[in-house]
Amino acid sequence: MADISLQHIYKTYDQSVTAVNDFDLNIHDKEFIVLVGPSGCGKSTTLRMIAGLEDITEGNLIIGDKLMNDVPSKKRNIAMVFQNYALYPHMNVYNNIAFGLKLRKMKKDEIEKKVKRAAHILGIESLLDRKPKELSGGQRQRVALGRAIVREADVFLMDEPLSNLDAKLRVQMRAEISKLHKQLQTTMIYVTHDQIEAMTMADRLVIMKDGVIQQVGTPKEVYNSP
Ligand code: ADP
Ligand code: ADP
């Protein structure tokens, strides 16, 4: 269960830039939330605070019934996918996906089961022995997703995961991520500056500007509002 409550959250950088200004939102378990808005409006900062990669200046982050503000990133049951899917160039796909599990000293056969399941979900079973440089952009992005899937986290955070892909592939991957969300039954928080992407994927949109939430609603509600 992963209801996420962001209660009056602020982020100030260098005691001057207010990147996030009174972000207040309840996210339901298994909901697909999209944070959308122009570059610099505070989307990534919000995501990074949820991930524990950035301190919260003020306000509370609660996941389930637990106050998370001071819980280190590693101890949060969260998986994250960034736009520049930093794969390890010298490792094959299998080991790129398995890397985090190996760090956790999981048993070899258990790792293999999880990697193969993720690869099956993503349709990359035939690519496990390839190196990243032998993959297309879309295939690399799937490997990055595979890495996140094997963490079996309750919460998935994605920061512009498709922005390096060409237009056609972006449309295809949007549908795949929506499908993945249904399959994994996780709470998703997805950041994009692309309004169409936001509209097609979100259960609810959170529209941000200058660090402030402008509007929250379903795509229909947002689209129909003046
Ligand atoms: P977005 O993801 O919507 O593009 P960000 O969250 O990256 O926006 O940035 C929000 C604001 O915070 C911007 O004004 C940005 O310049 C500033 N900012 C982001 N990261 C830092 C940082 N590490 N130090 C100082 N200012 C930052
Ligand atoms: P080496 O350390 O000899 O270079 P690798 O890095 O290729 O070997 O593999 C490290 C581990 O990952 C090994 O335990 C190997 O069995 C496993 N592995 C790599 N690729 C695959 C694959 N396609 N299917 C199953 N296991 C794999």
From TrEMBL:
GO terms for cellular component: ATP-binding cassette (ABC) transporter complex, substrate-binding subunit-containing
Residue ranges of every copy of the ABC transporter domain listed in the record: 4-226
Keywords: ATP-binding, Nucleotide-binding, Transport
Transport is among the record's keywords: yes
One GO-annotated biological process of the protein: carbohydrate transport
Record carries keyword Zinc-finger: no
An example Gene Ontology molecular-function term: ATP binding
Protein name from the UniProt record: Carbohydrate ABC transporter ATP-binding protein, CUT1 family
Organism per entry: Alteribacillus iranensis
